[in-house]
Amino acid sequence: MFSDNSIQWLKSNQNIWDRQKIGNHKYLNDREKKQLQSIAKEIDPVRYFTIYGCDKCIQDLIRFVFCEFEKEQSKLEHDSSTIQGTVPAE
What we know:
This protein is mainly alpha-helical. It has helices at 4-12, 14-21, 30-43, 55-84.
């Protein structure tokens, strides 16, 4: 679902999501907004995310992208542990 570049970007910008989860929203520059919007298009090519003039829209975009990323990472970890014959921790 995610390109290698997107995965790398999300991992290196995890602090954006970490700060939002504790209610300490990070102001995103234009490049970060456009990158998140591009990643969101990888996930759902039909959905449109506004990135200008709407702080709540930006927060929703962050939540959407990072939640989907966490789901994908969790699925990959589960699949990997199943292949190796181990049981994932609950």
